[in-house]
Each structure stands twice: as structure tokens, then as C-alpha cells.
Protein: Recombinase family protein
Amino acid sequence: MTKYVRIGYARVSLAEKQNLGLELQVRALKKSGCKTIFKEEVSGSLDERKQMQKAIDLSKDYSRQGYNVIFYIYKLDRLGSHSSRAIQIIEDLNKNGVEVVSIKEQFDTSTPVGVLQYQMLATFAEFELNTIRQRTKEGLEQARLNGKKLGRPTLSQSTKEQIIDLYSNSDFSVVDIAQQVNVGVSTIYKIIKISGINNRRKR
Structure:
């Protein structure tokens, strides 16, 4: 007897709370038979979505155990802001024996129509990526012609010293420091590494 597992994932960004709330999605997922539902409030443009990753990992784990796993979402864009990102996730799940169902679009990778929809989505995703690349290329070329210096601006010495001081003499996390001086977390780690700081002195 085939054992089925239905896992649901619901997501909203802060701007979507009223129009596409978590409660609406969760109700639809439960109605579809999902017993386990992961939900979070985070932008679809972010790569790190912890609850989604947990849902994906659990789905793969059940599949490895021999279950017939179906990964449910309310809409395809719950997987990401760009269709190219959604396609990557769907491909990864399918390769690991997990079917994907979108309730709103009636998208189901276990059916011939669902496979056709998936192929069409993949085609549009490729078009989307190529369009973004072309626009980026044109934008960079125009900036070069306008005499603009490309690449990230060099940090001032005072900013570097501020980063070192905050890291060495405070309880601020690296993320807090990055937000305070308006730079990326990777930049903070780079400055710390270059400065040779080994220990933090707490005030």
C-alpha cells in the first residue's frame, strides 16, 4: 500500500499580510490534506528562508524512506519572487522524488498537464533570466559610457576603524554592525580578518 505524505509551505512578506495572509494559505493547505505545514513571514527575494528549507528537507527525507511525498504551496510565487528561483526548487524536489502542487494555479508535476505547465514555466524563467542579464549588461555599458566608476565603492578608513572598534569593544553581533554602518556581513568579516582581530573585548 502506497504511503502518502502531504507537506505544506506558506509564506507572506510584510507587505502581503492583508492580501495574501498566512491564515488563508494555511486553510487551503489543510483543506488539501496537509498535516505538516511550515510557514514564515519573509521576502521571497531572500535566499535564506529557514522554514521553506525545513519543509524541503523533510519532504526529501520522507521520499528517501519510500513515501509518496507531495509538496503543497498556495501559489507558485510562494517559492520565490522570480519564476527562475521557483523552477530551481521544483527541479530539486522532483529529482528527489517529491511532487509539487500549487493550489491556486492547479499545478501538479505528477500529471501530464502539470509537466506541460512546468515546461512552459521553465521556458519563461529562462527568458526572464536572459532579459535580466541583457538589461544588466546594457546598464553597465551605459554607466561606463557616462564615465561612472563601476563596482562597489571603497570603504573609507574611518568606516573601517568604526567596524573594528564596534567588533572589538562591544556586544553587537556582526549583523548588527553591518546594519549600523550600512555594509554587507561579508564585508564585516573581511575587515575583521584583515585587521587580525582574534578576541572580542566586551564592555
Q: What stands out?
A: The longest strand covers residues 4-12. The longest helix spans residues 112-145. The domain at 157-195 is CATH 1.10.10 (Arc Repressor Mutant, subunit A).
